[in-house]
Amino acid sequence: MNQQCAVYPGSFDPPTNGHLDILLRATQLFPKVIVAVTDNQNKNPSFTLEERLTMLRTTTSKMHNIKVDSFSGLLVDYVQQSRASVIIRGLRAVSDFEYEFQMALMNRRLNRSVITVFLMPDESYTYLSSSVVREVARHGGSLRGLVHPSVEKKLKKLYRIPSHPIG
Ligand code: PNS
User: Fold this and answer.
1) Does pTM surpass 0.85?
2) Most CB contacts within 10 A, which of 55, 121, 128, 138?
3) DSSP-based three-state secondary structure for 90
4) How far is 159 from 167, CA to CA, in rounded Å?
């Protein structure tokens, strides 16, 4: 397995500036990072897989050594198929820990050679999540500084919010 390649998996529904912050940090540690979008429909995503891939490709277009891809099935199998050896996950607050700990240990049990590395985003993104972003967007709130402008546009379209409020 390639110690030089890391996989950053997630739903990215939609990608936020917190995700991009983690991704940027990951590229400082690993020469190649694959952003792997789950196509798991059980999560009932607001955006289709294709839309999430497009948003990620647009928002990471200026970053180097990044590949945006999708995966189905077990994450550790995808990591192995990609000849990678590291999973990157963001850790924002203690509340994330239990879920992340469970997932990291299960992934380790499934494949002992895959290592999970946790990175912390800038503290200004501690409260930021895709679900909070969707909630704010649904009610027409400002997302400036929280998501890439192209993602904000997609959210406005999804929730039929006019770009320039009428009146
Ligand atoms: O952004 P998310 O929704 O927290 O990402 C979760 C994700 C996609 C990383 C996780 O659900 C996953 O790895 N799914 C693939 C199925 C799998 O491997 N499950 C075993 C780990 S418990």
Assistant:
1) yes
2) 55
3) strand
4) 19
- Domain 5-126 matching CATH 3.40.50.620: the answer reads yes
3-class DSSP state of 33: strand
Supply φ then ψ for residue 16, to 5 degrees: -115, 175
Please calculate the CA angle 100-90-16 and round it to the nearest 5 degrees. 125
Domain positions in the chain: 5-126
pLDDT tens digits, one per residue of 28-86:
999 999 999 999 888 899 999 999 999 999 999 999 999 999 999 999 999 999 999 99
**In what helix (H) or strand (E) does residue 21 lie, and over which residues does it extend?**
helix 17-29
**Within 13 Å of residue 30, how many CA atoms lie on the same side as its CB?**
24
* Contact assessment for residue 85 and residue 113, using Cβ atoms and an 8 Å cutoff: yes
Report the distance separating Cα 131 and Cα 103, nearest Å.
20
Tokens matching residue 45: 């995503």
- Is 92 tagged catalytic? yes
30: three-class secondary structure by DSSP: coil
Q: Which helix (H) or strand (E) holds 86?
A: strand 84-90
Residue in 41, 53, 69, 75 to alter for ligand 1 test, most ligand atoms within 8 A of Cβ: 75
Both tokens of residue 5?
């390649």
